[in-house]
Amino acid sequence: MQTYDVIIIGGGIAGSVCAKFLAQKKLKTLFVEKYKPPRHKPCSGIQFDYFSRLVGEKFPPEKLCRHQLKRIEIYYPDGSTFGAPCSMYNFMRDVFDDYLNQVAQKYGAEFWAECEYVDHEETAGGVTVDLKKDGQGIRAACSYLIDASGLRPVIRKKLRPADFGKGANGGSINYYIEGKADLDPETLYQFWNLDWNNQMFAWVYNKTMEGREYWVVGSGYDRDLKQHCELFLDFVRQKYHLDGEIIKTEGYSSTISFNAAERIWLGQGRLLMIGDAAGLIDMTRGVGMDAAALSGRLAAQAIAAALKQGKPALEEYVKVSRSLVAQTRKNQTQSINRFSSNEELLTHLRKDMAAAGPGMAVQSVLNRFRQPEQLVLLP
Ligand SMILES: Cc1cc2nc3c(=O)[nH]c(=O)nc-3n(C[C@H](O)[C@H](O)[C@H](O)COP(=O)(O)OP(=O)(O)OC[C@H]3O[C@@H](n4cnc5c(N)ncnc54)[C@H](O)[C@@H]3O)c2cc1C
Description:
Layout: E1 2-9, H1 13-24, E2 29-33, E3 46-48, H2 51-55, E4 69-75, E5 81-90, H3 93-106, E6 110-113, E7 115-122, E8 127-133, E9 136-147, H4 154-159, E10 171-180, E11 187-191, E12 202-209, E13 212-221, H5 225-239, E14 243-253, E15 267-268, E16 271-273, H6 289-309, H7 313-320, H8 322-332, H9 342-367
Parallel strand pairs: 1-2, 1-9, 2-6, 4-11, 9-16
Antiparallel strand pairs: 3-5, 4-5, 7-8, 8-9, 10-13, 10-14, 11-12, 12-13, 15-16
Helix pairs in contact: 1-3, 1-6, 6-7
Bound molecules: flavin-adenine dinucleotide.
């Protein structure tokens, strides 16, 4: 049986970043991914500039979309707008995650694609893990097992089935449209309106897929999803003279309960949760990749310290993740599905965005002087 310091289930953002930092600390690390990379993932792939500092890499331009985002335009429920410069990364997750898999391997982590988690058992000094690759069962052992398997986390589901399927979370739909429009490919358009999205904002942006450019129009809802998304698409088609064929429609739904008080959970014993598996996706900020990268990095730091000092890693991981968890918990209470009308939403947005703007500017400046592990996630 092969033995590792750490085995990570999931080769997305959290798993790859964690594997990179563990390997960099010379820990014997295996990370496994169920699908063959580059694998598709429904995700807008938009992130703040500080994301590269969290990952600890300068991203090669060919791993990003042709148009990076330089501006944000916010539409309020009464039709008024607010625009501001805002520099953000824009990438396709299949290309980008494949690149991150390679980065982790470059640092020495072992990667098994098309390999999935089956089961595990905690032993006195570690964990034995049953995996399946090419139809064959493989047993491996490790000191720590990490669940980085996203919003349908396989280990967490086994340990805490009650965290799943409680109440409707709804989902989201993205329409990829090839055609002309009166839209700027370097702008992220956010539309706040309960007729289209009752989780966060509905969105429009430009993406590069296999060398071609597409307008992505998308939204989310906790019920009658298709109906709300189609309504939004009709609005965008009319307002921006978006004329073109839908090349692809992608949908997404989650089983983890976003509003549950116990959504954020970092693990137990020798089992650590990172990224979406830990419940760190933030519907209020509308992002999760930064928290996934940061939690992966913090878990690696905690495990390295624990193995060196002979202390439990979870205790250290909980300690170093305190600010990240507190911010995500606070935002969880700010979800817009508590508003029953667009008038209420508008009042909230006017107040919230007036306060958020200066706060974000201050944190952006302070972030330049912070170590990556101490970065405050925006907005
Ligand atoms: C529609 C949508 C739009 C989004 N847009 C943005 C955005 O613009 N910006 C942003 O920052 N965030 C966005 N997010 C959130 C973001 O996608 C997640 O927060 C982020 O991907 C979390 O990374 P992760 O590594 O934790 O999980 P994932 O990226 O989901 O990676 C988990 C990996 O585990 C693998 N896996 C699953 N089960 C197994 C198994 N049994 N064995 C082995 N491997 C397994 C999966 O195949 C996957 O590759 C969006 C999410 C959605 C749904």
